[in-house]
Design goal:
- The complex is a heterotrimer of chains A (about 475), B (about 240) and C (about 200).
- The longest helix of chain A has 23 residues.
- In chain A, about 50% of the residues lie in helices and about 10% in strands.
- In chain B, about 50% of the residues lie in helices and about 10% in strands.
- Chain C contains five helices and eleven strands.
- Chain C has a single domain, classed as 3-Layer(aba) Sandwich (Rossmann fold).
- Chain C has about 200 residues and is an alpha/beta fold.
- At the A-C interface, helix 2, helix 3, helix 4, helix 8 and helix 10 of A face helix 1, helix 4, helix 5, strand 8 and strand 9 of C.
């Protein structure tokens, strides 16, 4: 993975261990995440009640599916329009390519400092670490991202990067770094951040953002936020670079009207993000301010691989609202860090196998009880549990599952077709103490670690039935 | 002629909730239904399907479809297994889709059957004065759309089904998930147990969920009794 | 072959066997309840988001209101498109130091409670000031966001901002704070065409 640095991830392979450690050693994370995600979800529920949510979601799913089905045409149209608007369009196949493009821009303009709007894509690419290695001072300006940048941590949620932290954590941090009193209220903390960041906005040579949507007909990059730091980052510096995943295309600017509203309602329950930027290109001749140069970097980095998968392509409809994270009972126990990658929760689990490769993405497709809550809330109706099972099938095909599991399930399936043997095996299970069995079978060991042995019935039901039920 | 129902005990309930299956039989008979239990029944195939093994799932589904070929109604004391048959049998790669759809149409989870086919309102006064918490298993809730049915049946026995903040959240069983990722699974069970109000018992239509919650509760030496819905409702009939 | 060609090539290959979905048509913002009148809808949402609303029957009345409002401010940064009558009687200030910013919105959107800020008005004065006064004509209030975007599409500056309330964040322990980093106080002055 590109851009390894203090804020980057260590990969999903350690999910079980990281999750267990978080649950055991940092119970306050579980508490913070549970509270934050429940709040987000409650807001979403309220906001969806005000609209005909099913119809909005059907529409959004169909627009995104349509775009993805004609993605090459829309990409070309967007490039044409952006260029006509005076913006520079770049194409990056990999994270390394995207970073190289950024590096060229930095060198060309002698960039010394950059302000960053919150962008999950920039995390995925490892932008900050790379720019710092080129001697650029990079400052995250979203309050949550600013906080975790000071802590040297990666974001733990797509929308709220610092939801794993408590108010106390922030008070301690700001006291250390900005000199605020240890008992400062959030108001005062935010004020200190605003003052510190104000100077950085005004001095920065470069503003870096992502892109929530890219309208092909007008060449418009649309960005959603609540603070105003994205408007500032994309307006004040001389140069603005927007990194946009190729799946962010939307056919028309008028379509953006639906996505802005649906995404905001799904993410935080708002009718729309507090600030929305629609960016066409650099400042025009009749404008008094704005960047002199605007660059849009269209990024692949595994998205075409996802597109090529006949089932998982649907995951590219994702609008990064975080609703699936907010409802996921698995995500809620640990927050995002345990997943070891930029994208966590249900969406992370279904895109990682294509973008990182299935082997590196393991065990994420299994980090789910398949409860299905995510499909209830996804604004673009991605069939997440189906895709998790799809990736599990691929894992089986590619021999990535433990031998004991393969043998166990094959044997189980054979037994299930021989009812008398199946019943006999059940008898054995009932009469051998499970504490013993736990040592013999890894699957039972997993159970026994956290739970008491289930008490089997004295007789199986089928036995009771044979003997007669009165 | 009385209606005939074929009971599919399911692999899990056959072993761990046998008394609940017997209670389901008694309950159905009490409601004037003939119950048979087709020989040869084993497992619906969900563990294999969810583990990404469609071949094994297809074989188990074929076996199950054969066992219940002649059944008029197939009733299960399990939301997840009923969900597997109703919602996923037709999706299994290589399956005989016509037979799968035929079985799906005839398959019900117990409370779903009692309300939607038998139109049961009140069973009896047996749960009067009882404070009960209902755990909505994910498959019953989201795949079958069964939510009001068990609540109405419990209320119809005089039970007070109390509000529970986490009642629709996954208990953390998820079949193999509980064994592969036991720490997260246990944390999910803890979330349920820690938000549980003071009740006489917890009930649910799914044996897996009950094993998970009762197993975790026992390990933590906490929690009220966990009772399968079939047993709770049979208790509700009581004079 | 360039990166562009390779990416587009991979996209085409991925789509070669797939049947495409038709565009479902325009977004209609379907709702169970009938919407309020545009101005009422705008007022309701802006106030719910923490914005302040001032309603004036016409531009002259708005100008009079402004004169008394800015008594508490030492200077102001004024947008390029603000008409002469609506320029505050204050010394001109730079956007990054003036306590007050005054803008003319290109329009507003009732459905989302948003003011439409055009880059031609000047972005800095819209973003750096702690208190932001925005004039908008009631005849420029669109009922829906789609209508607004459809019309804006014909005449786009380098950037358009939709401002739907004072700057806010809940990143610190989920507690709402205002004014980081955009204006912490937003005052929308709706001006009618009447007498």
């Amino acid at each position: 993975m590109a851009g390894r640095g203090p804020m980057s991830f260590t990969g999903p392979g350690n999910y079980r261990e990281e999750a267990a450690k978080t649950i055991r050693d940092k119970p306050e994370v579980r508490t913070s995440i549970t509270a934050a995600t429940r709040t987000f979800d409650a807001h979403r529920v309220h906001a969806w009640r005000q609209i005909d949510a099913d119809r909005w979601r059907d529409w959004a799913r169909d627009v995104k599916s349509h775009v993805l089905g004609h993605l090459d045409e829309y990409l070309e149209q967007a490039e044409e329009q952006l260029t006509a608007n005076g913006a520079h369009v770049h194409w990056a196949e990999t994270a390394e390519d995207a970073l190289a493009i950024l590096g060229d821009i930095v060198r060309e303009h002698g960039v010394e400092s950059a302000v960053k709007a919150k962008s999950m894509l920039s995390e995925e690419l490892g932008v900050n670490a790379h720019l710092e290695s080129l001697g650029v001072h990079v400052r995250e300006t979203d309050l949550g991202e600013y906080i975790i940048q000071l802590l040297g941590q990666p974001p733990s949620h797509i929308v709220g990067p610092a939801i794993h932290l408590s108010v106390n954590d922030c008070q301690r941090l700001f006291h250390e770094r900005l000199g605020t009193p240890l008992d400062a209220e959030p108001d005062e903390l935010a004020g200190a951040a605003r003052d510190a960041l104000r100077a950085e906005f005004l001095a920065a040579d470069l503003g870096i953002s992502g892109g929530n949507f890219l309208a092909a007909d007008t060449g418009t990059v649309a960005l959603i936020e609540n603070e105003g730091n994205i408007r500032l980052s994309t307006s004040l510096p001389r140069v603005h670079v927007a990194c946009v995943g190729i799946e962010k295309l939307v056919p028309k600017l008028e379509d953006v009207s639906g996505f802005l509203q649906l995404t905001a309602r799904a993410a935080t329950g708002q009718p729309i993000g507090n600030f929305v930027s629609l960016i066409q290109g650099p400042r025009k001749n009749d404008e008094v301010d704005g960047p002199e140069e605007v660059h849009v970097v269209l990024v692949d980095n595994g998205r075409t691989k996802l597109l090529a998968d006949d089932a998982a392509w649907e995951a590219l409809r994702c609008v990064r609202c975080g609703a699936c994270l907010n409802i996921c009972p698995v995500y809620r126990q640990t927050g995002g860090h345990a997943y070891g990658w930029t994208y966590s929760g249900p969406i992370g689990a279904i895109i990682a196998p294509a973008m990182l490769g299935l082997e590196e993405a393991m065990p994420l497709p299994y980090a789910s009880s398949l409860c299905g809550a995510c499909t209830d809330v996804c604004p673009v109706r991605i069939p997440i549990p189906e895709l998790l099972v799809h990736w599990r099938e691929k894992a089986v095909e590619q021999g990535l599952t433990p031998m004991t599991e393969t043998m166990g399930l094959k044997a189980y399936a054979k037994l299930a077709q021989k009812p008398d043997l199946f019943g006999a095996a059940g008898s054995v299970l009932r009469h051998v103490p499970l504490e013993l069995g736990g040592r013999a079978l890894p699957v039972l060991a997993g159970w026994m670690q956290e739970r008491s042995a289930p008490k089997s019935s004295k007789k199986s039901f089928l036995q009771m039935w044979k003997e007669g039920i009165e | 002629m009385a209606m005939r129902v074929s009971l599919f005990a399911t692999c899990l309930c056959d072993q761990f909730y046998a008394e609940a299956c017997a209670d389901a039989v008694l309950l159905l008979r009490h409601l004037g239904v003939d119950v048979d239990v087709p020989r040869g029944q084993t497992c619906c195939g969900q563990p294999a399907y969810n583990a990404g093994r469609p071949t094994e799932a297809r074989d188990m589904a074929a076996h199950t479809m054969h066992v219940f070929e002649d059944a008029e109604y197939v009733v299960l004391p399990s939301g997840s297994c009923a969900g597997m048959i109703r919602c996923f049998y037709g999706e299994i790669s290589g399956v005989d889709t016509e037979r799968a759809e035929s079985l799906a149409r005839r398959t019900y989870e117990l409370s779903q059957f009692l309300r939607q086919v038998l139109n049961v309102e009140t069973l009896g006064p047996g749960l009067e004065g009882r404070r009960v918490a209902y755990h909505h298993g994910c498959h019953a809730l989201r795949e079958l759309g069964v939510k009001d049915e068990p609540l109405a049946l419990l209320a119809g026995c005089g039970a007070e089904v109390v509000e529970w903040e986490a009642d629709e959240e996954c208990c953390g069983f998820g079949g193999l998930f509980s064994a592969k990722l036991p720490e997260v699974s246990a944390a999910m069970a803890d979330r349920k147990l820690d938000t549980l109000p003071d009740v006489d018992f917890v009930t649910s239509s799914d044996g897996g969920c009950l094993l998970q919650l009762s197993g975790r509760a026992k390990k933590r030496r906490t929690g009220p009794p966990f009772v399968h819905l079939a047993s709770a409702l049979w208790r509700g009939v009581a004079r | 072959m360039s990166a562009r060609d390779r990416i587009l090539g991979r996209v085409r290959e991925a789509l070669s066997e797939r049947t495409a979905v038709e565009h479902p048509g325009s977004f209609e913002g379907w709702r169970p309840a009938a919407p309020a009148l545009p101005v009422d809808g705008l007022v309701h949402l802006l106030e719910a988001a923490g914005g302040e609303i001032v309603r004036q029957p016409n531009v002259d009345a708005a100008a009079a209101w402004l004169a008394s409002f800015c008594a508490d401010f030492g200077s102001s940064a004024v947008g390029e498109t603000v008409p002469e009558t609506l320029r505050p009687p204050l010394p001109a200030g730079a956007p990054d130091t003036a306590p007050l910013g005054v803008s003319l919105a290109r329009g507003a959107v009732a459905e989302t409670g948003s003011l439409i800020m055009d880059a031609r008005d000047g972005r800095r004065a819209q973003l750096l000031v702690p208190t932001h006064v925005v004039f908008v004509r009631t005849r420029d209030v669109y009922a829906t966001l789609r209508e607004a975007l459809t019309e804006l599409a014909d005449d786009l500056p380098s950037a358009i901002g939709f401002h739907s309330g004072p700057s806010k964040s809940a990143d610190i322990g989920q507690i709402l704070v205002k004014g980081v980093h955009g204006p912490g106080r937003l005052v929308a002055v709706l001006m009618g065409d009447g007498d």
